[in-house]
Amino acid sequence: MKFLLLALLFATGVSAATPQTIDNSALLPPIRPDSEVKLEYSPGKAIGHPDWLKSLILVELNVETASSNRKFSGMAKTLDHLAETGVNGVWITPLHAGGHYGNHGIHTINKRLTGPGSDEECWNRVRQFVDECHKRNIRVFLDVISWGVREDAPLRREKPEWFTGEFKKEWDGWLFDWSNPELNEWFIRNLVQCILRTGADGFRCDCGPNFCKYEPYREARTRLLKLGRKVIFFSEHASCRRDTFDFDQNAFIPGPARNRTKMMDCDSLLVNNIVDLVRSGAQLGAVDDYSKPGGTERFYAMMLSNHDSKGYSSQGDIIAFAYQAILSPFLPIWFLGEEWNNPYPYRRVPRRWLYDRKIDTGARRENREFFETVKRMIRIRRLYPEIFEYFPDDHRKSNIAKVKVLPPWFRNRPEQLCQPYARYRGDSAVLVIPNNSPIDGNYTVTIPYELLKFSPGERFAVTDLLTGNVLATGTAEELNKFDLFVREGRLGVCLVAPAARPLRR
After folding, report:
1. Domain 400-498 belongs to what architecture?
2. Exposed, middle or buried, 190 (CB in 10 Å: 0-12/13-18/19+)?
3. What pLDDT was estimated at residue 275?
4. Alpha helices in 144-264 (DSSP H)
5. Which of 191, 260, 293, 398 is the residue whose CA sits 20 to 30 A from 74?
């Protein structure tokens, strides 16, 4: 039994001297009042990003499938799980009456999620949920719908002049006429009111930048700022931003034709060279302006999965998860359950959208090794914010560079391996070494001292961040390379830093 326990601890990257499970909740950045939040402006931009955006790790969830009672009041255990994981942002699928992404308008509330009562009582329950999130240092982003309303929505009968007369059959609803000034003002006022009444931290803008385009969102954001609220808005599709969106959910536009209709379960950073992709900005652009150079904005997201996905993207593969999202220079997004590969319960029907997949946090124990490894990768991101929360004004200038490795079993075909990379800042670097080959073995890694700032004769230590073991020490002249054992399908993650500096844990 003792041998089995030690083997499990080694496999998960948890040493025998530490607890068997990792809890990252203490590493979540504290939520400060808006008056203490600094807005960071990029050159030529009129609206600044709240400084907390750099630390965002975002998970989408549907309250009906993630709650113990299908309501906001039953979300406590899920929020505790997210804090333990190290997640500090939740994107909530629509809470408006009408259900799912069909709706009755952003002024309405879905009482299946809140329980019965007056509208005021129901909105107060959403506010209580947001307060519970904030107590755990988790920010909340509400999904807002701009295409129109469902066929049975009262708004269609009350304000027929707000609609084009076009019925969208696949969405079972009527399209808004965004040329109507009254509709625009109503939408803006309700966006502002929704933030003020719930205390939420911003919006995910469904279908953005399509339908209402940028102006209503930008005006709502401007009014909120005048009222002291420093929030973020992010669009569904790759956009031109236009002082409206901080980032895009679907940042990647796949293929040479930039197919804007394809909803990716993104694997771009596995099938392309990640460093070349970042440096060139390839596949990062805007669906409403293909002439816009890719990768020129500050923030881009790596979405592993969302409610539209027909399954989890990584499927328990830590390379697909951490190499692409957690350790890369992107804001990570995934649908709740990806972090432990939530079991798929529908055995007799075709694969269904993640939107309605039941979330069973008790099933984490079935994939405990993967979940603990995900948490350890997130912990690394949290412990070294100066490296992982550095986002230059131009994403193409991100602090990522190629690392030279020599894998003995692929000496003649290194192109089949994912590109090892370094994330660096000042005198330290975190090296990310993926082994997507079918064989365990030693990598010979060349230390990229050219990326670091240090004094002649300064001694460095190479530390395995998954085990805490020091692998090698020496000056740059003495220590040029080191060997790292990486198991098949795993990541090696090492810190190169001054030897005198204590390791963060």
Report:
1. Sandwich (2.60)
2. middle
3. 97
4. 154-158, 181-198, 215-226
5. 191
